[in-house]
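From: lab user (bench 3)
To: helpdesk
Subject: output format question, protein + iron/sulfur cluster

Hello, I'm new to running complex predictions and I'm not sure whether the block I got back is the full result or only part of it. Here's what I submitted:
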Amino acid sequence: MTARSYEVRTYGCQMNVHDSERLSGLLEDAGYVRAPKGEPADVVVFNTCAVRENADNKLYGNLGHLAPAKAERPGMQIAVGGCLAQKDRDTIVRKAPWVDVVFGTHNVGSLPVLLERARVEQEAQVEILESLDVFPSTLPTRRESAYAAWVAISVGCNNTCTFCIVPALRGKEKDRRPGDVLAEIETLVGEGVIEVTLLGQNVNAYGSDMGDREAFSKLLRSCGRIEGLERVRFTSPHPRDFTDDVIAAMAETPNVMHQLHMPLQSGSDTMLRAMRRSYRQDRYLGIIERVRAAMPDAAISTDIIVGFPGETDEDFEQTLHTVREARFAAAFTFQYSKRPGTPAATMDGQVPKEVVTERYQRLLALQEEISWAENRTQVGRTLEVLVAEGEGRKDHDTARLSGRAPDNRLVHFERPADGVRPGDMVSVEITYAAPHHLLAERPPLAIRRTRAGDAWERRTATPAPSPGVLLGMPSVGAPVAVGAPTATAGCCD
Ligand code: SF4
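Helpdesk reply: Thanks, we reran it on our side. This is the complete output you should expect:
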């Protein structure tokens, strides 16, 4: 009998991207194989996100497109998971009765069982739990990259930011034991991974569950003792919980990168209060000052929301002021849009669309100018770049390769004559800076072949029918394959 094929469609933040690695791992563990790109799958899983306005309309549109395919393909199954499933529950099968399985954010591990039950009972299965029973990292994971990996250290969030749906859908923060986190990282490194990104909705609150306020900095320092682990990143920290011991750990642990993505959201104290974010502009800028004092080469990026309900011109000026002071290397800027189910969605003082757009354009122009100026400071420097796969969209046409500098800046460089593989390290001299990337217009000065490059080569050379499932907790079983994407912006911290 041929194995049934699957496809996972992912929407939203890194937490969902990592959950999708788990969903793939679970399905492969249960005997499914990934459907080749562009070919129809026997099981289509939607891992949904609830933060965007109209996310539900888009989901029902996508489900509607699949209905005829399902009618023509006996045995095909459709599953919907993630935040929107957690939020809408039974509504999904009411509106799209051809859906077979609905599961929530707390029970991703149930997917294979629910699919099987739906098949045997010929009836849609809806299972949503209110809290986590198993930490998701204990589940099998089908890692997307051979050289870099996400490692979840906590899930959920104890804050109540008024624009955010996470506390309602992902629940209270639950921390994973440090020993389990470190064991997972050691296993990943054993398989060839050289970069990990520690992941949490509010990553530096790690330890609140265990009553240890310094647990996060201790974890960073412990990562520094893992031989073979070359780069450690984390996302996303909350300014409220950003303590000086974390700055010291970053500065003193050689493999912790001097990169910080710390969401600002607004520079106005009034808006921060309305957002229920408990820091103020001066605290935020104070952290940045201390980070720069300890690590002058640190690249700091952020998330900013423009047009939060009640935002006045003066509030917005405060955001511009903070951006000028902070000199972010990059900023992910969002025009506020109502997120159903959040307190902000029903607040008075919703800002007219045209005002939001005008402010957004001004912020974008300012940040663009700063990003470009900050990037120009890199010209003439020699940087060690971790060669990546799929980071440079034009690499094929430009005969270049791409990767990330230690501070996570995107670098394109001339493809060397000698083979270089994703996962290898190259030293390049930066010759040109654009606002969003750096360019090395000459071949690398040096190439360092790494275990990660070997792991990439092994994985690429042997596209196994079941491409390898890593059990999240090494004590549960032996790993087969490894990896994951590099960090991008946080979703909502
Ligand atoms: S924005 Fe971040 S810190 Fe605030 S509630 Fe959402 S996940 Fe928690």
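A quick orientation on your result: The CA atoms of residues 46 and 80 lie 5 Å apart. Let us know if anything else is unclear.
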